[in-house]
Amino acid sequence: MTPVHTTPVSLLQRLGEPTGDAWEQFVRLYTPLLYAWASRAGLQDADAADLVQEVLLLLIAKLPEFRYDPGRSFRAWLRTVTLNKYRERRRRAALPVTSDPRAAEALTAPDDPEAFWETEYRQNLVGEALRLMQAEFQPTTWKACWEHLACGRPAAEVGSELNLNPGAVRAATFRVLTRLRQHLAGLLD
């Protein structure tokens, strides 16, 4: 399947100019993850929000030079950038050190599929992708897919409710899933 211009891999490639749709989509996808990392590191809500803003400001400068390498993890690079900004912020603001030594460790946790980071990353990414997909499709198409796939309702039942035939419900589900796979291509490594 060939990705189209709005897939995440091409999103990363289009971030050379951090304005417009590409940057807006990037911010929607990654802000919840950055915030979760900051909160997990022990920052209060306001400090976590400040750290996210600092990371995003840094990314505005770094992403025009960033070249996506399919053999490396973009998420690991982003986590490193976030960790470095967290450490810099702690030094600069002389924030009190938490008594929990695992606070900074949360940002540097290894890629372990059972670890919190993997679960948190996937939940945030998929959640944001689903919100983007919902906005991209007509309400009837989205509802047909959601009711049939997520709720497990038969296509005939969903179709009857939405005045669609069962084939149209299956086609809507296929279109949304295909677009979702394109959207997540390269980000779920």
The amount of beta strand, in percent, is: under 5%
How many strands, what sense, and barrel or not for the largest sheet? none
Low-confidence stretches: 1-7, 109-114
CATH class of the largest domain: Mainly Alpha
Q: What is the count of helical runs?
A: 9
The CATH architecture term of the largest domain is Orthogonal Bundle
Shape: elongated
Could you tell me how far the N terminus lies from the C terminus, measured between alpha carbons in angstroms?
17 Å
Radius of gyration: 19 Å
What is the tally of beta strands? 0
Structural class: mainly alpha
Report on the structure:
This protein is mostly helical and 189 residues long. It has helices at residues 8-14, 20-40, 45-62, 74-93, 102-105, 116-136, 139-150, 155-162, 166-184. Helix 7 (139-150) runs antiparallel to helix 8 (155-162). The model is unreliable at 1-7 and 109-114 (pLDDT under 50).
